[in-house]
Amino acid sequence: MLPIVDLAELDTPAGRERLREITHHVGFFYLDGHGVDRELLDRVFTVAREFFALPEDSKQSVAMLNSPHFRGYNRVGGELTNGETDWREQIDIGPERPPIPGAADYLRLQGPNQWPGDLPDLEKTIEALDAALADVGMRLLRHWAASLDADPAIFDDAFAHAPATLIKVVRYPARPSADHTGEQGVGAHKDSGVLTMLLLEPGSSGLQVETEDGDWIDAPARAGSFVVNIGELLEVATGGYLRATRHRVLTPAGAPERLSVPYFLNPALDATVPVITLPPHLAARARGIEMDPSNPLYNTYGENAWKSRTRAHPDVYARWYPDEAEPG
């Protein structure tokens, strides 16, 4: 089972030290005491079910394929991880901003969302969730910084202007018991941003986290908790003292339907994540940034996000940017 962290406990040196060590070794934990209104979280699941129950033509009217900013709906099988098809449908939502005139490369990720006209509650609910989780996420970042003997506000400037949050509202359909297409709900991967807070439907399972030894452990939903994990940019910021952890979702034959809502706390697209100078006793334990030629890590958030988005959605990339090199 993943460790459990209560946000209130992080106001103490002992609590921050425990947070640091958990995310040095595991990279994942359950977060309690976050203070996010239970009524809001219930409303998120209600509106998610309403969205996925819409007629197919209504969902396709906001298809990501219509968006050069990689926003909108993906049908089941419309996203790839490690080149393999994921068994889920989802809508991707970011900050509601106009496109940047003349934008190139990763700055093209900024732009408007696509909202289904017959479900106005979706936009209002996601905006409320964004506001609540941005506050929790920044509190966590300040605690991490303090635990590493850095200025607690060291990350603040990167988030001060136009943070590039990403929210996914996800449905994993039930997989038929006689299914032979595999069990990949989402393939093994790391998150490209700073940190992720995952809201899981009560009673659901399927999420697995890779351990330091290369084994996989289950991370089922826990009542009242978010599942939190660090992303690649926090690995970069700490020289690998904190390392982003691979995780996956399995939907084996016979698996029931489940919903999840990951919230990715990210700085501005053009923000360079600050690198923390670790004290000697921590620097000696830092493992360095993982060097994987197939997955380079960038310290500018937009570069890291563009890498991930173009790989996950090659159809969107090909439609809007056909003259560019293959993603990745």
From TrEMBL:
PROSITE patterns in UniProt: FE2OG_OXY
Source taxon at top rank: Bacteria
Entry keywords, A to Z: Antibiotic biosynthesis, Iron, Metal-binding, Oxidoreductase
InterPro entries named in the record: DIOX_N, IPNS-like_FE2OG_OXY, IPNS-like_sf, Iron_ascorbate_oxido_reductase, Oxoglu/Fe-dep_dioxygenase_dom
Gene3D superfamilies xref list: B-lactam Antibiotic, Isopenicillin N Synthase, Chain
Ranges where the Fe2OG dioxygenase domain occurs: 163-267
UniProt pathway: Antibiotic biosynthesis
One MF term in the entry's GO annotations: metal ion binding
A GO biological-process term: antibiotic biosynthetic process
Family named by the database record: Belongs to the iron/ascorbate-dependent oxidoreductase family.
Protein name (record): 2-Oxobutyrate oxidase, putative
Organism from which the protein derives: Rhodococcus wratislaviensis
